[in-house]
Amino acid sequence: MSALAARSANEAHLYMDLRPCGCGEGRFPRASAILALPDGELARRYAGSCERCGTAREFLFRLPAEPESAEEGFRYGAAEPSALIDAGEWLWVAEGHARGVPAGAERLPEADRRRCRTRLTAAVAAVDEALKFVPPGGGRVPFTAVWSPLGRSVYQREPGRFRASRLTAVRSAYDTALRRLG
What is the pTM of this model? Predict the structure, then answer.
């Protein structure tokens, strides 16, 4: 098994969740271990069994050259676009997180607002990831930045969502909702 290039633990976990078992179950309980690759670099191995069908699941991710910084807040990766998750998948993830935040969330009890803040923070970070696929000076995410079946279905359903101006507007709306939650 070759090691995949995850830019962060958040990206690695999301990648595993987006790659379901043959039975369709996406998540699985995972144990992890750090190991040395043949080239001397370090990797993290995640392994576990599908809770639905018992199939063994295993993923191997090369550790990033630079350690993650908790000071920068929640992020999925560094400045470069993901090599694992395409722009369409990032939009699907952002939409899923945002959909979990009800209208009027600022009136919810603090524990519920905290969950909504977590969801919106992840939604903003996912839109930021989709924006990384827009080439410098470009006006949209190119179709070549969408390679997974899920990502392509998102792109084909509404290609206009991949315009840089629209992505920026969606990000701004999520960020505004997040700030309203305090």
Answer: 0.92
pLDDT tens, N- to C-terminus, the chain (182 residues): 789 999 999 999 999 999 999 999 988 999 999 999 999 999 999 999 999 999 999 999 999 877 766 666 789 988 899 999 999 999 999 999 999 999 999 999 999 999 999 999 999 999 999 999 999 999 999 999 999 999 999 999 999 999 999 999 999 999 999 999 98
Residue extents of the structural domains in the chain:
4-70, 86-180
Strands of 42-49's sheet in order across = 4-5, 56-62, 42-49, 31-36
Strand-pairing partners, residue 140, are 163
Question: Rounded distance, CA 18 to CA 24, Å?
Answer: 10
